[in-house]
Amino acid sequence: MSIKLFELLLQAAIYTVTISVVSILIGFAIAVIVSAMLLSRQRLLALQARIFISFFRGVPLLVQLLLIYNLLPAIGLNVPSIVAAIIGLSLCTAAYQAENLRGGFSSVPAGLVESAEMVGMTPVQIFRRIKAPIALRLTFPALVNEAILILKASSLVSVVGVIELTRMAQDLAGSTFLPLEIFASAGLIYLVINWIVALAGGLIERSLPGVPR
Amino acid sequence: MKAHSLLKGLVGAAFLIGAAVSAHAADTLATVKAAGTLKVGTETAFAPFDYIDAGEHTGLNVDLFAEIGKELGVKIEWVALPWDGVFPALEAGKFDVVAGPATITKKRLERYRFTPPIAEATIAILKKAGDATISKPEDIAGKKIGVGKATAQLDQLKEFSETLPTKVDVREYPAFTESYADLAAGRIAGVANSLPNIAFVASQRKGTFEVVLPPFGKKSYFGFIGLKDADHAPLMDAIDAAMLKIKADGRMAELQKKWFGASFDTPDAVKDPAF
């Protein structure tokens, strides 16, 4: 396999990483809102959040991508391939991340919150100093896991016309008849990317407050 | 009560979608000219029409649409999808026309509009070089033959298979390139595709593949595909006119020679395909 082919795979890998990182970040922002709705005392808000999660966790990502790409134009939103891919990945990961966050927040010991109330902390202070740090600490490993899952799931977005790492590998294997070398290289690139994500995640986790050393 | 209001909501939503769709109705030629870009959908795994050569999108379609773009005074923007996703996306308005190309068939003519043909599409078999067990099309009886999913070649292969003493073991692939790879790896005995495609593949890989002659089935042609509705009529008329001009001044024959090794006669329009 030539250097040129490997370079093409690396370029496609940049696409894979960009789409995944953008989707994870947008997904996290949505997940914060959805998990807040889930934990809200207003039942209608919680119900809407439940429906959102059921849909995006219950329908395969491949089907979601095809729906977003082919159905949005029917309501006048004809988004380009790359945008459809990011919307699909973001909404899907948001559903999973919202569940993770909900789990994190509901695992904050009630006794801690009560003690904070006793010493006269305001709800905002309790959130900032007690709830958020503990919940973040509890959900962080799941977030790293989700980032790795999305990096791998991004191999599906070629169905809406984005040429990412997997699709580039397929195209190159088809035109060069070197499937073994090309898919092995693509696998190696995925492995290195995800290894870096896991490593960085571990480093950040150790720097989070309240971590036993 | 609850079910009733849910139903009302659904009906309301359906109306909204309908209204949005009709609000979007517009002359696509005007839209394309205003944007300065013609969006063309295709699958980049159909050499020599559209394929990736060391990372570059290339082929007859790329050259031909460059000429069409010049005639219309617009730029060409390519959208590459898996083949079975191309038609749904065309109907969803993700692009203005499909390069493909696709075999012009009766069924497709009912739903889509075709440009003037760009090549003959009659089906033939590609085999591994030196495979003595296949010397004529009938020899594929009982053998594993690869073909593209959702293609006209698949229909023709199945029809041909019915005429044989033992049926062909048809293997469907998302893209033809994958079937060529499996043929090279010895997982299947042959690939059924249109003659220009397999002739090109065989010429690229002389020691690996060979074409089984003659082609079989009914004579057919390849054309580009667009939507049949009134909105798309001016655009499709303009593309047809551009292509006929390109054909008349010899540019089409030149491109055919470049990509197929020979130019061939095609009718200006196919109104009544053989199948």
Task: Explain what the structure shows.
The complex is a heterodimer of chains A (213) and B (275). With 213 residues, chain A is mainly α. Chain A has helices spanning 3-39, 43-58, 61-71, 81-106, 110-118, 123-153, 165-176, 179-207. In chain A, 80% of the residues lie in helices and 0% in strands. The model of chain A has no long low-confidence stretch (mean pLDDT 93). Chain B is of the alpha/beta class and 275 residues long. Helices cover 41% and strands 25% of the residues of chain B. In chain B, a hairpin with a 3-residue loop joins strand 2 (45-46) and strand 3 (50-53). In chain B, helix 2 crosses helix 9 and helix 3 crosses helix 9. The N and C termini of chain B lie far apart (53 Å).
List its traits:
heterodimer, A: 213 residues, mainly alpha, 8 helices, 80% helix, 0% strand, flat, B: 275 residues, alpha/beta, six-stranded mixed sheet, five-stranded mixed sheet, 14 strands, 41% helix, 25% strand, globular, amino-acid transport (chain A), ArtM/GltK/GlnP/TcyL/YhdX-like (chain A)
CA-atom Rg of chain B in angstroms = 21 Å
The helix-and-strand class of chain B reads alpha/beta
- Report the count of strand segments of chain A: 0
Helical amount among residues of chain B, as a percent range? 40-55%
Largest sheet of chain B: 6 strands, mixed
How far do the termini of chain B sit from each other? 53 Å
Transmembrane segments (chain A): 12-39, 51-69, 75-96, 183-204
InterPro entries (chain A): AA_ABC_transptr_permease_3TM, ArtM/GltK/GlnP/TcyL/YhdX-like, MetI-like, MetI-like_sf
Subcellular location (chain A): Cell inner membrane; Cell membrane
Membrane topology (chain A): Multi-pass membrane protein
